[in-house]
């Protein structure tokens, strides 16, 4: 049985983004890859934004348990998601790469 993280109500999505964002930040800091990740995220962000806006607009998915705060047509949590996901991927990648180099 999965834990019920819905206890955070409308802040559930935001809380999960903060938790995983913290994990990503720690991994990037540990790999000394904050600058690299920042540059990559800045390049990826516009593509992710358009993709996210479109899929929400046409109804591909709906987001429950969110704050209801929108910015530029999408939930604030989605903006955070578009930073956290590539940061987490890059954090894992860079830590694995550095481990393989040593």
UniProtKB/TrEMBL annotation:
Entry annotated with the keyword Cytoplasm: no
InterPro entries: Lycopene_cyclase_dom
Cellular localization per UniProt: Membrane
GO cellular component, one term: membrane
Molecular function terms, GO-annotated: intramolecular lyase activity; lycopene beta cyclase activity
Transmembrane segments: 12-29, 36-54, 74-92
Entry superkingdom: Archaea
GO biological process terms held by the UniProt record: carotenoid biosynthetic process
Segments forming domain Lycopene cyclase: 11-94
Pathway where this protein functions: Carotenoid biosynthesis
Membrane topology: Multi-pass membrane protein
Keywords: Carotenoid biosynthesis, Isomerase, Membrane, Transmembrane, Transmembrane helix
Protein name stated in the entry: Lycopene cyclase domain-containing protein
Native source organism of the sequence: Haloarcula rubra
């Amino acid at each position: 049985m999965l834990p019920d993280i819905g206890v955070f109500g409308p802040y559930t999505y935001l809380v999960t983004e903060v938790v995983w964002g913290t994990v990503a930040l720690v991994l990037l800091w540990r790999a000394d890859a904050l600058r690299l990740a920042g540059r990559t995220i800045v390049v990826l962000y516009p593509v992710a934004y358009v993709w996210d806006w479109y899929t929400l607009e046409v109804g591909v998915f709906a987001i429950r348990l969110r704050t209801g705060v929108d910015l530029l047509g999408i939930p604030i949590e989605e903006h955070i998601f578009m930073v956290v996901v590539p940061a987490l991927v890059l954090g894992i990648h860079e830590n694995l790469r550095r481990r393989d180099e040593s």
